[in-house]
Amino acid sequence: DFSVSVPVQSHDELGELAQSIQTLANDLNYMKQERNDFLASISHELRTPLTYIKGYADIARRTNIRPQERTHYLQIIGEESERVNRLLEELFSLARIDQNEFLITKERVQLFPFLHSIYERVLPAFLTKNIELQLDSDQDIFVDIDPSRFGQVLSNILDNALKYSNEGTTTTIRAIKRDRNVVISIQDQGIGIPEEDIPYVFERLYRVEKSRARITGGFGLGLAIAKQLVEIHGGSLSVKSKPGAGTVFTIVLKES
Ligand code: ADP
């Protein structure tokens, strides 16, 4: 640790300097702790699928198992490899955002056709789960966005709406103008987020319920990525939720 002990209590310049050094040391320790926690979480996330992969590879190699069984084990190995791959891809995106290497190329985009293309892309998955998807947007809204990056933001949020909603519910994508801003909201009627978890959902690797997330397949990185991408666009992303009633994510952007 950066243990610094500067017993200077005076209120002159030297005292102020001692205070600054102390504050800096505290910040450094905090950052070091955060980095350690993050690495520990990633190691854990990688260990689980790798344990499955190794275990099932060992079983699949046995000579005395039925072909269907072997196919089943190989399928699990494939799925778990896919999971590792997804985690690495998401981590790589975040690392590039952190390095400011994430160049976005903004263009003036008419919002309705853009939202409609995303709507059409995700609709089959919603229909399969028997969740209604609605799009309600004014025609004459323009924004400056990088279509592919901004599309990723909406996909991440819509993926969650799908994952955390039950059949027979409705998810609504809305876009309206408010003052000189554009407000895009994605509202679901899903399980909602407990109040005590709300402050953390945009943090990296944060999941409301780890065991449930293991089944739904998330790493708790989707919203962290979405928020950073929205902020790179100069906008904001926020959430409101009520357990049992649903969740609404709101993006605010400047109008173009
Ligand atoms: P994940 O990939 O695990 O879904 P996210 O970063 O996208 O990670 O979301 C973080 C957590 O926030 C999720 O694990 C989930 O518990 C909660 N969450 C996000 N979106 C919703 C939603 N629409 N409804 C209920 N819970 C949600």
Short description:
Helices cover 52% and strands 18% of the residues. By secondary structure, it is an alpha+beta fold.
Low-confidence stretches are none
Structural class category: alpha+beta
Rg (C-alpha, Å): 23 Å
* Main sheet: strand order: 2-4-5-7-6
Give average pLDDT, whole number.
90
| Cofactors, ions, other ligands | adenosine-5'-diphosphate
- Proportion of β residues? 15-25%
Shape call = flat
Order of helices and strands: HHEHEEHEEHHEE
The beta-strand count equals 7
Report the helical percentage.
40-55%
Discrete helix count: 6
- Main pleated-sheet profile: 5 strands, mixed
Distance between the termini: 48 Å
Give an overview in words.
One of its GO terms (cellular component) is plasma membrane. This is histidine kinase. It comes from Mesobacillus subterraneus. The protein has 256 residues and is of the alpha+beta class. The chain has helices at residues 13-61, 67-98, 111-128, 147-163, 210-216, 222-232; strands at 107-110, 132-137, 142-145, 170-178, 181-188, 236-242, 246-254. A hairpin with a 3-residue loop joins strand 6 and strand 7 (246-254). Helix 3 packs parallel to helix 4 (147-163) and helix 4 runs antiparallel to helix 6. The longest helix has 49 residues, at 13-61. Bound molecules: adenosine-5'-diphosphate. Adenosine-5'-diphosphate binds next to helix 4 and helix 6.
